[in-house]
């Protein structure tokens, strides 16, 4: 998986200032929520420490976003994504032509046959 955008610690403040990190991450996540994108995730690089990732997880949770860490040790990174119900997601993908960089909708063969009749 190759993310389209990386966020590293340099853009969000120092390791010493948790409040600054929280404020900056909330601002970033608010802009992400307000965007009309549904097929891109926020990826926070492995530059963040364990306590910083915990802060980012908390911010994501409070804002109704899904978050998950991947990797181990120094390679651990965080992915934040929008929580979408399946019907809204399918509708949005179909409105974009049925395919996005992240998703593709396949019509079941039985449904496709019935539409041809």
From TrEMBL:
Per the UniProt record, the source organism is Heliothis virescens (Tobacco budworm moth)
Gene3D superfamilies cross-referenced by the UniProt entry: R3H-like domain
Task: Name the chain's protein.
Answer: R3H domain-containing protein
Per its record, what are the GO molecular function terms? nucleic acid binding
The R3H domain is annotated at 19-84
Report the superkingdom from the record: Eukaryota
Entries under Pfam families matching the protein: R3H
């Amino acid at each position: 998986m190759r993310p389209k955008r990386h966020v590293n610690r340099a853009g969000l403040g120092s390791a010493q200032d948790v409040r600054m990190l929280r404020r900056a991450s909330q601002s970033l996540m608010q802009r992400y929520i307000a965007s009309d994108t549904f097929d891109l995730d926020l990826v926070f690089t492995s530059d963040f420490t364990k306590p910083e990732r915990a802060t980012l997880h908390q911010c994501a949770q409070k804002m109704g976003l899904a978050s998950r860490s991947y990797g181990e040790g120094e390679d651990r990174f965080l992915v934040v994504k929008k929580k979408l119900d399946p019907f809204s997601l399918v509708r949005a993908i179909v409105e974009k032509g049925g395919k996005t960089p992240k998703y593709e909708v396949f019509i079941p063969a039985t449904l496709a046959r019935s539409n041809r009749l």
